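FYI - complex with D-mannose, inputs then prediction.
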Amino acid sequence: MQLSFRWYGNTDPVTLKQIKQIPDMKNIVSAIYDVPVGEVWTKDKINSLKSSIEQEGLTLSVIESLPVHESIKLGEANRDGLIENYKESLRTLGNSGIKTVCYNFMPVFDWTRSNLNYELEDGSKTLMYDNDFIKDIAPVTTNLNLPGWDESYTKEEMAALIEKYRQIDEEDLWKNLEYFLNEVLPVAIEHDIDLTIHPDDPPWSIFGIPRIIKTKESYQRLISINSSKNNGICFCTGSLGCLEENDLPEIIKEFGDHIHFVHMRNIKRLDNHSFVESGHLSKYGSINMKEVVRALKAIDYKGTIRPDHGRMIWGETGKAGYGLFDRALGATYINGLIEGVETNDSTIS
Ligand code: DNO
C-alpha cells in the first residue's frame, strides 16, 4: 500500500514542495486540466505534467481523471469519435508509464454536496449533503456552484443535458458503459493500464437522472462485462459509505483483484440520506477506517491510497475538500493504520 496525494497542477494553491513534506508521501494523483473533455491528451502535455512532478522527487502514479464525454455516457451518434480520442489518450498515457487511470460514469454532475462550509463542533468547516435541500433544488437555476460540477456548461447546455438524461434509465446507462468498456479495455490491457471507475457520489440518483455505480451489485455487473483485472475499481470509502447497506470490508474482499486505487475519507451518515464529511478518524464518522485498511491488507493491496477530502482547519482557505492541512493529517492517520496492520504482532514479546 502506498500513499498518494491529489494535486491540481501548477495552479493548485497546495504546492508539490508542501506535499513532499508529508511523511512517506511519494506519489501524486493528477490530471491535465486545460484540455476540453473529449479531446486528446498530447504527449507533450503529459510529459510536462510528469516532469514538473518528478523535478520535486515525486512520481505521477495515477491519473484522476481521464473524463468521459457526456455523449459517450448518453450513447449518442458521435460517441465513436470521442471513444477513439479516449483510446488515443490512454495509449499516450500508457507509453508515458502511467499504470492507473481513474474515470467515472456519473451523468452531468460529479460529486455533489449542498454546503461547502458546514461548521463542525470544533470550528472546522466541512462539506455536507442535505438530502432534503438537494431534493428540492433545480440544478439549472440554482446559484450553487459546486466543486465537482463542470463549469464549462452554460445554463442552457446543462438544462439540455439533464433533459436528455431524464429520457434514459439505468439500463441504458449500463449499456452505454458496456459499449465504452468494450472499446477501451483492449487498449488498456495492451498498455497494462488499470482503468478504475469511481463510484457515484452520493451513490443514488440525483435530480431525476440515473446513476449506476452504487453498491456491491453494481460491481458484480461491472465485472460481468469484462472480468479482466484492468476493468478496475477506484474504491472510495466516503462515496460507498453513504449507504449503510454497503459493507466496505466485504466489498473489498469480494472485488480485491479489481481494486487498484483507494480514496479514504470518513463520513457521518445522518437521517434520511444526508451526511456530513467528518475528520478521517473512525470515531468521528460512520466508517470503520481500521477495518477498511485491514481488508486491504487481507487482499494484499499493493496500489495507491489517497486521503480524500479534508476539512478546512487552522484558517486555511482554498479548493473545497482539497486544502493541505487536513488532508495531510488524514495521510498520517492512514500511515498509522497501515503500519498497524502491517506489523506482525506475534513478533512483539
Ligand atoms: C471528488 C473526487 C471525484 C473523482 C471523480 C473521478 O473529490 O473523488 O471528483 O475525482 O469522480 O472520476
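The mean pLDDT is 94. The chain has one domain: 2-342.
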